[in-house]
Amino acid sequence: MTLQQIKYIVTVAETGNITEAAKRLFISQPSLTNAVRELENEMQVTIFNRTNKGVVVTNEGDVFLSYARQILEQVGLLEEKYLNVKERRPRFSVSCQHYSFAVNAFVDVIKMFDADQYDFTLRETQTYEIIEDVSKLRSEIGILYVSSKNEEIIGKLLKQNDLEFQELFVAKPHVFIYSKHPLAERESIALEELEEYPYLSFEQGEYNSFYFSEEILSTLDRKKNVKVRDRATLFNLVIGLNGYTVSSGVISRELNGENIIAKPLLVDEYMRIGIIRQKNMPLSRYGVLYIEALQKYIKQ
Length: 300
Description:
This protein is an alpha/beta fold. The protein contains 10 helices and 12 strands. Helix 1 (3-15) crosses helix 2 and helix 1 crosses helix 3 (29-43).
């Protein structure tokens, strides 16, 4: 396996087309095809499935490419340090539950880096997909919470996928409500006071058991339930329906506006919010910067 072959497969994955990749790499299409096949044979992995419309990355190819991109990033760092060569297109990806501080930190990393070209991804997604993304290296970092109700199942999944959980902070559950909600003037809110209001939560797809719920206390029976897929919709319904959701209490006026407020929920429970990452794998410089930015917002 050579560095050149690694660059070839990453370019093919980016373009999704052998012909286009060959043009970008300034080599012939047969030469590129042979180089990719030689690498697949040597490493005993099928990176691409060939179709009439181009190439599609396989599941095992997805993992292989994640390692390949890390190699190219490390080479880029060496070239920057010793040859004064700028890295062409850095990549960084985060998968997380719907936390505003995760978005704020992501914005900070992009501003700190300030490059001409980059390919960064932030996925606010379902809990199981966060674990899957990090295990397959689609994302370098995942952000989720564990509690007394789900930590056994989540911990088992992390162990199976050779991932580790690093706690960022412990939060008491809070209710997110409209600033003009009938309970908005309360210093804290009890569960029984919320019975008549719609409960809003994030839909978890086929992994919809309470173990994967993004909201703590999801096992409780509510009379009115509404499930959504994105944060903007959830907050619009919080306002439009006088609904509520349960989260960490960390809220960003910059992202969520003045209309959403957080009130402590009177329950004896906790949320351990943290990052998940591959064991024994060093963080990229973007991963290090991202965690530093997270810590800044957590302290605030």
